[in-house]
Design brief:
single chain, about 80 residues, mainly beta, three-stranded parallel beta sheet
């Protein structure tokens, strides 16, 4: 077996997104995957997360103040099994 759960390094595959993510962005993702979103996301981001890394940040063009605004929906990381 070339790859297996124990052989995959953290951030083995990084995917970068720009814009708005819908329901359940990054749901049920596993070790080795890193998702980076510049924008905003709806509910259930990272639902059932199993070792992946998810980063949601304001887009470079945004004029929002991050600590005064919401860029991610309800129920984030529900069922995270790290």
């Amino acid at each position: 077996m070339k790859y297996g759960y124990e052989k995959i390094n953290e951030n083995f595959l990084e995917l970068n997104f720009i814009g708005s993510a819908g329901q359940s962005f990054g749901a049920f993702t596993s070790k080795g995957l890193k998702l980076v979103l510049k924008g905003d996301a709806n509910d259930y981001v990272g639902k059932g997360l199993s070792g992946a890394t998810i980063s949601i940040k304001l887009s470079d063009e945004s004029n929002l103040i991050s600590n005064e605004n919401t860029i991610i929906g309800n129920t984030v990381l529900y069922g995270d099994v790290r």
